[in-house]
Amino acid sequence: MSEESQKKIMLTGDRPTGRLHLGHYVGSLRRRVELQNEGAFDEMYVMIADTQALTDNFGVPQKVRDNVIEVALDYLSVGLDPHKVTLFVQSAVPELFELTSYFLDLVTLSRLERNPTVKTEITQKQFGESIPAGFLCYPVSQTADIVAFDATGVPVGEDQLPMIEQANEIVHKFNTLYGETLVAPKAMVPTDQYSRRLPGTDGKAKMSKSLDNAIYLSDDEKTVSKKVMSMFTDETHLNINDPGHTENNPVFIYLEALATDDHFRRFLPEYKNLGELKAHYERGGLGDVTVKRFLAAVINDVLAPIRERRKYYEARIPEVYEILREGSERASAKAHETVLRVRRAIGVNYFSDRKLIEKQSKAFKKKLEDEAKLAEYLARQKK
Ligand code: TRP
């Protein structure tokens, strides 16, 4: 395949429907920053998926509009560096709409209806029989998001795996029909089980804004402490001396995802590491308040530099929009190369295809000549 496809390229994104939370952080954001700092990819793209957010928020566009800046601030706060990563807005890259149109032909309605993530969301959002076509088709537009940048790696949460699978099906179908054109992407999910899906503070399976069980990256210290102190923990651990359960206990899951030995040294030196703390809790004799206080300190320690950077950018909002505008321009230029390749593969590149014009020009000339010859012959016959 072309040289372009040998490059290591990362693309991922988030819907701007709210501020980003700790689940986003452990599930994807911190990995993006690591990848950026390791220089693991030749090119990195991070997209604010406003068009996708509109597929189920078309009635409340103001919500999407207001959260674009929140997500941008969250990106910059966690340490994504606009000099190393192209941060852009989906709607500002028109090439994505064109690619979506071509890809829509390569997928069936029944396949879209089978997408497990979409299926769950349809139930959650209670669309009933009135599913917006744009919503049902968003996996196709997500394929365009990924494929437009020749992305080889897509860091996402576990819930996005069906999207990447569907993207691969579309890529395969396109390449089979029109020749090798598109790069097949690979999902990158966190390797440790605790980071893959952070439960909510209420113990529900997923941290989410709509469930009101999230700790936001932009929460201040007091808010974090309050949320942590009222967290759901082990229901069977009623007395301090009862043996406790650490498995499926959100407090311990958060610690698994966030606490380092250094945190123990600084905030809870009675224990060397999480293994020791867990052992004591399971044995009995360790109270939830001690563990929660430690967790609040850990989270606040992780969030401290993030809050700091957020303040810096909150004081420079026009600069943040400029970062997004520049990024969108760069993203659009990159996606345009893919669009040209795709148009050529399908054969809708009429005006730039000199061979096509020459060939048809010759064919029609020949036809005109043949017709003229025939007319001449017939005229001669008549005489
Ligand atoms: N669907 C993703 C989410 O809900 C957002 C998204 C849109 C995305 N396009 C993408 C993620 C492309 C990865 C790649 O969070």
Characteristic key phrases:
5 strands; two-stranded parallel sheet; 6% strand; Rossmann fold; mainly alpha; binds tryptophan; 17 helices; Tyrosyl-Transfer RNA Synthetase; single chain; 383 residues; three-stranded parallel beta sheet; elongated
Helicity range of the residues?
55-70%
Tell me the distance between the termini: 63 Å
Based on the coordinates given, report the CATH architecture of the largest domain: 3-Layer(aba) Sandwich
Radius of gyration (Å) = 27 Å
Describe this structure in words.
The protein is mostly helical and 383 residues long. The chain is built from 17 helices and five strands. Strands 1-2-3 form a three-stranded parallel β-sheet. Strands 4-5 form a two-stranded parallel sheet. The protein is elongated. Bound molecules: tryptophan. Tryptophan is lined by residues 11-15, 49, 52, 142, 145-146, 154, 156, 160.
Question: How is this structure best summarized?
Answer:
With 383 residues, the protein is mostly helical.
Write the layout of secondary structure elements.
Layout: E1 9-14, H1 22-38, E2 43-48, H2 50-54, H3 61-78, E3 86-89, H4 95-104, H5 109-114, H6 116-125, H7 133-136, H8 138-147, E4 153-155, H9 161-178, E5 186-188, H10 193-196, H11 221-229, H12 250-258, H13 261-267, H14 274-283, H15 288-314, H16 317-346, H17 354-382
Parallel strand pairs: 1-2, 2-3, 4-5
Helix pairs in contact: 3-15, 4-8, 4-16, 8-9, 11-15, 12-15
The structure holds tryptophan.
